[in-house]
Amino acid sequence: MTNKTIIRIIAYIAGLIIQALGLALMIRSDLGTGPWDGFYVGMCSHFGLTVGFWLIIFGVIFIFCSSYLMKRRPDFLSLITVIILGLCIDVWLYVIHPEQKGAEMQVFTFWLGLIITSAGTGMYLQGEFALTPADQLMIALCRRLGLSLTASKTIGDSCALAFALVLDGPIGLGTVIYTFLSGPLIQFLIPRIERAIVTHVKD
Prior knowledge:
It is built from 8 helices and no strands. It is mainly α. The chain has one domain (3-197). Keywords: Membrane, Transmembrane, Transmembrane helix.
């Protein structure tokens, strides 16, 4: 196994763990979550179970949606990513309970979560293994409709926002910020993370 392969595996696993941490921080900020996470929290509030559980369930649905859009067999390897992400989110939500609830702490927690989530997404993508079902759907929309990565993610997140509102999920100003800034932020970070993690590692 080459050094580059080892680095990619580490980046893949670490990126998912980091992404889950960022999502949990945004949920705990009480300023509004990411659209899909708001939907999962809403499902959790209405029907029980955990946020991570609903993430995994809908991850399976996304796998089949992506398969239809791309006209190919479902990529069940992406279940690995959604299971890791779902379990990690539940663990982080169990661990993270900010003691201070002031406005400054809420804003800090949200922005920290947004940056960490975007960095984690950019990092795990460097692994070049299976995508999370949500990201797989984003890529499928990008290719099928000829959209940019930013546009396809914005469309997907906007749909999730509507579902979250129907379920009275934790939607707020932070949700709007995440919906329109996460795509550009990920796109901005990906080449920088790639240079830092991959390109300077010799085989």
